Predict the structure.
Amino acid sequence: MTKQIHPQVTFRSTDEGGVLLDRRTGAYFQLNRTGCEVLQEHLNGRSHDEIVKKLQEQYHSEASRVAADVTALLDELAARKLFSDE
């Protein structure tokens, strides 16, 4: 299932990664390049495990660390209600 950013949230790329601006609250959330990659993969419908595997292979990192970081980021974005409920 493909996820979407909430209609009132704007994403802009930056040299360092990207920024999500919640126009409902004026709050923003800055992402580094890896965070942007996780977000894009999530929005493309990739599962948590698929994202972890890709990042683990790409960065030669420990799976448990990558899994924890991916979970933390996606949970934080969801808690801030930056994804559409549709």
User: Anything to note?
Assistant: Strands lie at 9-13, 17-22, 28-32.
